[in-house]
Design a protein that fits this description.
Elements lengths: L5 E6 L18 H14 L6 E5 L8 H14 L5 E4 L6 H7 L13 E5 L2 E5 L16 H10 L6 E4 L20 H11 L4 E6 L6 E5 L2 E5 L6 E2 L8 E4 L3 E8 L2 E8 L6 E5 L1 H15 L1
Bound molecules: fe (ii) ion.
Length: 287
Amino acid sequence: MTERPLTFIHMTDLHVNAPGVEDDMLFSETRDTLRRTLAEIARMEQKPDFIVASGDLTNHGEPEAYRTVASIMDEAGLDLPVVYALGNHDRREGFAEGFSALYSDPTKPYDHDTVIGGLHVIVLDSSVPDEIGGFWEAGQVDWLKARLAEHADLPKLLVMHHAPMIDLTAGEMEWESLSRVATEELRQAIEGVNVVGILSGHVHMDRVALWHGVPVVIGTGHHAGTDVVALPGAFNMLDATGFAVGTLYPSGLQVTFVAHPQTREVRHTLDMQRILDFIEARKTAAE
Ligand SMILES: [Fe+2]
């Protein structure tokens, strides 16, 4: 019998809120969606080796919301390692309280790595407090380079909430991804390294890009899907959620998207101008 390939779950943008909290920026029952994904994993005949949760674990970052994530995960009883990343909706202080066994110093980004079944998984914290887009803080790229130099014989899987910027002409859309500068730093850091894929979230859509030869996989996630066909005229958030199953074959990474039952009805329409004004105000404040 041949050895079974390494398999993992990619979930993203969990946007869990604490029970009993009024939240007018929550457009679906995200606790139920997390339970639904975990129930689907439990139904898998071949149990995956680990779970990746690539950021926006909570909608507002309160400690109670992280404790809710942890308790829903525990209740599922899957007994699988979960690799967490932080996103722009997360708060480091809240995560440190809710996941104190994993993270204790909220002054530092939550960068970490682990080896699972011959795959070196490296997680970068691309969130910056109070920003929507992704950036690195001082020292993160050096940390990444040091990790990439370790386990040189093992393929690397990178996890970061914000995907690299693919369309370099879309300067005003930097909030959708890693910044242009951070993207270039990432490209230089991984040059010549066997990176089998990058798992991300943030934009709430199933999207695959080939970025300098590296597959970048984004999932719709657990909150509300972006109405891709209505862009750029309207920014609708739809009833659409799901997760993905990743399998690492000797020939490369395969990712299969699993959609939850969904209507794709509009749940909320974001005011694009408000987002752009917010970004502009942040830029002006930084100057
Ligand atoms: Fe999100």
